[in-house]
Amino acid sequence: MTTQSSNPTDPLRTLPAAKALVAAAVLAGVALSGCNDRAAQTATRATLVRTTIVQPRDRQASLTLTGEIQARFRADLSFRVNGRVVARTVDVGAHVNKGDVLARLDPAEQQADVDAATAAVASAEAQLRVAKATFERQKALIASGFTTRTVYDQAREGLRTAEGMLEAAKAQLGTSKDALGYTVLRAEADGVITARNLEVGQIVPAAQPVFSLAQDGERDAVFEVYESVFLGEADSRRVTLALVSHPGVTATGEVREISPAIDAKSSTIRVKVSIENPPGAMTLGSSVAGTVKTKAQKDITLPWSALMAAGRKPAVWTVDPKTQTASLKPVTVGAYEAGQVLIKAGLEPGERVVVDGGKLLSVGQAVTEEGGQS
């Protein structure tokens, strides 16, 4: 009968356990060694990017807006008297000469006033003749001593009153004739009718505009410009103009008037450009494109792909030339243009900026440049 030892430290019982512990330690060491190798490989792996060196360049931008050809001088035409329209001789777009008849009112009321004023003049003339005869008689009588000074003075005063009444009647007749003439609306200058606001049979009040006349002569290109445009500095007041429908038809102009007030509805400012020797094709109402250049200045321009974000602020990835690692640098954007962005502040000449591949970068990550340094 074999007797087994009950001692827990018996080497016969602990030998299998010791072997198991040694095997586990070896496996753990191997696993840790593999993890360290992968971490080292990850840390040393560089991301392929494309970069460029920041260099400010002289840049002269231009701004093009669309406007309309308008006459330098325009007038709203209206009747000076009330009445019913009985005739209209022109329509929008018609060219008229000074003195041409545009429309007529029914002259019956004004003609009646003329007739009444004419009768009043005839009556005043008759009264004046009587007053003159009375005065001449009293003048002769007082010289002979057959009348009194009071009667003579009354006759003289009656003569002056009759003369005044005749002058007033003549003035009223003149006013009535003028009113009769105002029933005919005539063009005040050579030009083109650009608007019409009456029809035959319509009752129009005095001073209500019924036609708009664009006078022949000087032309302006009128633009509605957003206020932000004025934040830039133009190279000059010269503007290059071209018809939108026919870009080959061009002209030059100069800014002559900038409205001091902003339109409340469109939030724009009206700018008028005088056209020098406008071509015949630049007719009233034509759409025209006006281009003005801004002063040349040194700007840092980068492609859109270079722009990232640091929180809520714009930023770009820069590469340290010594360590070849990436860092995110906040910048201030001056303007956005087609395909590129203008950097106002935040970068210095000579810095290397990532322009492609930045989406895969993290701070401190090593990078390698595609095709070498650019």
TrEMBL record:
Coiled coil where?
A: 114-172
Offer a single GO CC term for the protein. efflux pump complex
Its transmembrane ranges are none
Which molecular-function annotations from GO does this UniProt entry contain? efflux transmembrane transporter activity
Q: Which residues form the CusB-like beta-barrel domain?
A: 223-293
Domain spans labelled Multidrug resistance protein MdtA-like barrel-sandwich hybrid: 75-210
**Multidrug resistance protein MdtA-like C-terminal permuted SH3 domain mapped to chain residues:** 301-359
The domain of life is Bacteria
Where primarily located? other
The alphabetical list of record keywords is: Coiled coil, Transport
Record InterPro entries: Beta-barrel_RND_2, MdtA-like_BSH, MdtA-like_C, MdtA-like_HH, RND_pump_MFP
The UniProt record lists the Multidrug resistance protein MdtA-like alpha-helical hairpin domain at: 115-183
* UniProt keyword Transcription regulation present: no
Q: Where would you find this protein in the cell?
A: Cell envelope
Q: Name one Pfam family in it.
A: BSH_RND
Which SUPFAM superfamilies does the entry link to?
Answer: HlyD-like secretion proteins
User: What PANTHER family does the record tag this protein with?
Assistant: HLYD FAMILY SECRETION PROTEIN (PTHR30469:SF38), MULTIDRUG RESISTANCE PROTEIN MDTA (PTHR30469)
The entry sums up its family as follows: Belongs to the membrane fusion protein (MFP) (TC 8.A.1) family.
Q: Please state what the protein is called.
A: Multidrug resistance protein MdtE
Q: Which species is this UniProt entry from?
A: Bradyrhizobium ivorense
